[in-house]
Amino acid sequence: MQVRGFLLLLALVLLAATTEAGKNKKEKVKKDGSECQDWRWGPCVPNSKDCGLGYREGTCKDESRKLKCKIPCNWKKKFGADCKYKFESWGGCSAQTGVKTRSGILKKALYNAQCEEIVYVTKPCSSKIKSKSKGQ
């Protein structure tokens, strides 16, 4: 009987502690938040070269802010790091041009970026002939 009461008390203490921790996070967000709702964000500008860690500047009325951001070093420069696309699989190799093509449909534009709805990418055809090895 006493063990059950102790476990119940312990559960209530843990519940109260997690509830209090959640309140602190919400209050902190409200302090740091801005009343302005119409933020305009610029592109992510890397600190050095053309990829890696950097920052993005935003303005809203009289306020301005900088956010940390990161441009992956394997990003498609043509599309911009803030445009996310869903690509279909690669098409067949064109004998005339020696390249294969695929298209991507815009999935998400981050920070109000100006993105094309559909993009096309090409890459050279592989000169290697893939052989399937069969296990015996």
From TrEMBL:
Cross-referenced InterPro entries: Midkine_heparin-bd_GF, PTN/MK_C_dom, PTN/MK_C_dom_sf, PTN/MK_diS_sf, PTN/MK_N_dom, PTN/MK_N_dom_sf, PTN_MK_heparin-bd_GF_CS
Keywords: Developmental protein, Disulfide bond, Growth factor, Heparin-binding, Mitogen, Secreted, Signal
KW Transmembrane (keyword) present: no
Organism of derivation: Hemiprocne comata
GO biological process, one term: positive regulation of cell division
UniProt family annotation: Belongs to the pleiotrophin family.
SUPFAM superfamilies: Midkine (SSF57288)
Domain of life: Eukaryota
UniProt function note: Secreted protein that functions as cytokine and growth factor and mediates its signal through cell-surface proteoglycan and non-proteoglycan receptors. Regulates many processes like inflammatory response, cell proliferation, cell adhesion, cell growth, cell survival, tissue regeneration, cell differentiation and cell migration.
Domain Pleiotrophin/Midkine C-terminal: 80-135
Metal-binding in keyword set: no
Gene this chain is encoded by: Rihb
Protein name: Midkine
Compartments in which it is found: Secreted
Signal peptide: 1-21
